[in-house]
Amino acid sequence: MKPVSRLLLLAAALVLAALSPSRAADSGKRVVTVGGDVTEIVFALGEGGRIVGRDTTSSFPPEAGRVPDVGYMRQLGAEGVLSLKPDIVIASAGAGPAEVLKQIESAGVRVVRVPDPHSVEGLFQKVTTVADALDAKAAGAALTAKLAQDLTKAKAEIADLPGHPRVLFIITAGGGPPMAAGTGTAADSLIRLAGGENVFAAHTGYKPISLEAAAAASPEAIGLMDQTLQQMGGVDAVASNAALRLTPAAKEKRIFGREGSYLLSFGPRLPQALSDFAHAIREKAAEKGAL
């Protein structure tokens, strides 16, 4: 069976499951979301008006910025969350600390953990989990069907693009050294879905690397989060870096940055992000006006 056919069948199965009778969730009216992907899904379901708090990583859609910020998703405080009097907290699997979430539950607030596998199937699971938590199953089924359709189109578009570029994806965290994305990361999944080859696939997770090691990998394209690109001085600075300037990516200025959650959260914007990334790893920065 073709991958596209399997994708549509999986989406159809999830839609049917979402529409089947089950015990209604105690969804409540006041919602705190933790995780940019979770917040985006709630808005995409048409339930954004119920959000009374969100974490710092939840910056899209713009309406999310008008909601009180409860802090970074991995460093939550029970007092700040509870002060918003939520009926339910919907949190990405990476949210924490665990003891804080337990404190919130102990205060009588329902906490729903949303899995975050970096895959198309994982996105469908997220939508189903969030929709169930909000007792919005019909909206969840509709969103899943729309995403399946958009992803099928994106996959077909990518299949028609030339080659399988060797890609290096770099991030920085807290001003630390550059780290390359290995297997088991959102960036690795994104590269593979976009038809590229991860030059650091032999490594697992995000690993600090020297720029010399990055150059030895001979990437044909270098992708970064916007913040990382700015920290490294922009496209021209990366392309002229002594360790990178002889790589195919630097010579062709196939170096680009994108907002982190857009590329890596595997939320409702995944079809757009896949198409964008697939083109970016094959085009010169100058061709896109990115200089």
From TrEMBL:
Keyword Transmembrane listed: no
Protein name, per record: Periplasmic binding protein
Location of the Fe/B12 periplasmic-binding domain: 30-285
SUPFAM superfamilies assigned: Helical backbone' metal receptor
Alphabetical list of Gene3D superfamilies matching this protein: Nitrogenase molybdenum iron protein domain (3.40.50.1980)
Range of residues in the leader sequence: 1-24
UniProt lineage: Bacteria, Pseudomonadati, Pseudomonadota, Alphaproteobacteria, Hyphomicrobiales
Lineage top rank: taxon: Bacteria
Protein keywords: Signal
Source organism of this protein record: Rhodomicrobium vannielii (strain ATCC 17100 / DSM 162 / LMG 4299 / NCIMB 10020 / ATH 3.1.1)
